[in-house]
UniProtKB/TrEMBL annotation:
InterPro entries in alphabetical order: Calcineurin-like_PHP (IPR004843), Metallo-depent_PP-like (IPR029052), MPP_PAP (IPR041792), PAPs-like (IPR039331), PAPs_N (IPR015914), Purple_acid_Pase-like_N (IPR008963)
Catalyses which reaction(s): a phosphate monoester + H2O = an alcohol + phosphate
Keywords, comma-separated and alphabetical: Glycoprotein, Hydrolase, Signal, Zinc
Domain Purple acid phosphatase N-terminal as annotated: residue spans: 69-181
Cofactor(s) needed by this chain: Fe cation
Root EC class: hydrolase
Protein name: Purple acid phosphatase
Signal peptide residues on this chain, from the entry's feature table: 1-24
The Calcineurin-like phosphoesterase domain, residue ranges: 193-402
EC number(s) given by UniProt: 3.1.3.2
UniProt GO MF annotations: acid phosphatase activity; metal ion binding
Family: Belongs to the metallophosphoesterase superfamily. Purple acid phosphatase family.
Organism: Populus trichocarpa
Amino acid sequence: MGLLSFLTFPLFLSLLWRLIIVNGNFSTTLEGPFKPVTVPFDNKTYHGNAIDLPDTDPQVQRTVQGFEPEQVSVSLSSDYDSVWISWITGDSQIGGDITPLDPESVYSVVHYGIEGSQMSYEEVGYSFVYNQLYPFEGLQNYTSGIIHHVRLTGLEPSTLYQYQCGDPYISAMSDVFYFRTMPPSSPTNYPRRVAVVGDLGLTYNTSTTFSHLLSNHPDLLVLVGGISYADMYLTNGTGSDCYPCSFDESPIHETYQPRWDYWGRFMQPLVANVPTMLVGGKHEIEPQAEDQIFVSYSSRFVFPSEESGSSSSVYYSFNAGGIHFVILNPYTYYDKSSDQYKWLEGDLYNVNRNVTPWLVAVWYPPWYSTFKAQYREAECMRVEMEDLLYEHGVDIVFNGHVKNVTHALWSWHRNRDYYETAGDILYIVREPDRCLANQGN
């Protein structure tokens, strides 16, 4: 399993955002076009294979009792005045004979207030469970604990809030957590520090990145796919570094859902206090019975899809001060007749660059990469959407997926004779005829 954000990468990103936003030394595409600047790739550095944290590690074990909350997280709505609080109560089950928990057996309540004052505000949300089911003999099915989502509204910008979540009627409340709202959108207001991480997984390397993120106190965390890597495990809990070797005899690519629970527990000290926005990547597809995909990703977290006019959790947008983020997905339909393309077209058209000068797009596999194993993997998406992103002057694209080398961080430019990457200059070759009607597979 790969890890984009090894120790130096979050530091690089934090420095990048400080240069762009705080010092103002970089301009957006509104003042462009500009000549790309390449960064030489250190081909001598090899990061090797990451080793997964075992399920016996104390950091991934369930430590709460009964219906006490765990796996708490906070995410942004489409603008500064609203956030979502999510958590899980009750234990999950995996095996051949599972009985889903009753979501109505516990309430979804958040008490909150500005830090230093009483938590006198209360919001009530909704709850449900999800299942990961397989229509084959020998594969173990899964049912989650009760998942809760509560939306807080009417919040003040750039303000530190404290909150507790759970069910106060059965004395099952969480510890106190904190989050800071985003600043209001304007050309002069930005988050102090934005962390961007991809292919995080749950490894010993993850621990290093996790500690680095905690110590740098970001105001916003964007996870560019490759979240728990539950899909790298069979339903009996065993896995392998060689994905094709382990799964070629299976009638369906299995996924061991308890890895999501482990990840949620491990990450709680960070994601319960820092608004975290997730991007659905290849490892989050997790196909199951009746051709359902992205079920765990879409259930465990909440996304500002409806608030941003999207009909799907895998593509949406939100503002963080003077930055407008657009989240896209190459694993669902994206051609010009698709809902995703039409949504993107409308979202970009409605961006007011006088209010949010910075326009950032995020999706999992890069359109351009010199890494042979994943070369041109998202070429068809590029053919469909690239012109639209250029037309609206997207400033920066963040991708993950390429894990054996430093990930590409490159800017969009109106001059497309070449582009910026972490490796070298690669000339663009357009072959749209290779992109057949196989989207969504």
